[in-house]
Design goal:
This protein is mostly beta strands. The protein contains two helices and 17 strands. The protein has three domains: 2-36; 43-85 and 179-227, Immunoglobulin-like (Sandwich), CATH 2.60.40; 88-176, Cupredoxins -  blue copper proteins (Immunoglobulin-like, Sandwich), CATH 2.60.40. It starts with a helix and ends with a strand.
């Protein structure tokens, strides 16, 4: 470094400019917040409010009834206000492994693609029927390593089975809204990126359907659906 600083005037000027750039870079790096640094371990706390495209969104943390008979609660937030909902960014899928549908309950978006895969070492067929009407949605054979893509036309529950292996069963829940989740065994749930506003909350729990209208506003901390 010394020989550059004490060299010709041009080299010295370049060196001073380089040192200035290094200092500016160091100051900028030190002044970055966790949000500026994608590698930061900082996470958004429960019910924190963020702004996306001028719209306030929330991380909704809540509690629903605990699982009953091995079936967890399903919580769906349906916006009361009309408007376009965001498209799915990833394709949900149901796989077949060791003669089991995985996951046993899958939430999908109505009118958007869902994949049915077979990563088992045997041939399976997937038979899907609409629960409310018992009408067939599709029935296809899926060889090992292959998949079938389907878009559910209507909101609702769909029963999934395999004619080759009658012990296999699962359920699909198709909905228009992206703001939905399956609660854990104790009834806890979390839904991220929910815009503030009024919602009809539909909860399926223990064979019951419970509906509530709630308002999500900035700073809302917790939703208790057990009362």
């Amino acid at each position: 470094m010394a020989r550059y600083l004490h060299g010709s005037g041009e080299i010295a000027r370049r060196s001073r400019a380089g040192l200035l750039l290094v200092c500016v870079a160091l100051v900028t790096a030190c002044s970055k917040t966790p949000a500026d640094n994608p590698k930061s371990d900082a996470q958004v706390p429960p019910a924190a409010s963020t702004a996306t495209g001028g719209t306030s969104t929330l991380t909704v943390v809540g509690r629903s009834p605990a699982a009953s008979g091995g079936f967890p609660s399903i919580v769906i937030f349906e916006p009361k206000a009309e408007g376009e909902l965001p498209l799915q960014t990833e394709i949900p899928f149901m796989d077949q492994v060791q003669q089991t549908f995985n996951p046993p309950i899958l939430l999908v978006r109505t009118g958007q693609p869902t994949e049915f895969r077979n990563n088992d070492d045997v041939l399976h067929n997937v038979r899907v029927r609409e629960d409310s009407t018992r009408l067939p949605a599709f029935n296809v054979a899926i060889p090992t390593g292959e998949k079938y893509v389907f878009s559910f036309p209507r909101d609702g529950f769909y029963d999934v089975g395999c004619d080759i292996h009658p012990g296999m069963a699962a359920q699909i829940v198709s909905m228009s809204t992206p703001y939905a989740t399956i609660a854990d065994a104790e009834g806890g749930f979390l839904i991220e990126g929910v815009p503030s506003g009024a919602y009809k909350v539909v909860m399926y729990s223990g064979g019951r359907t419970i509906e509530k209208v709630i308002e999500l506003a900035q700073g809302r901390a917790d939703i208790d659906l057990t009362r």
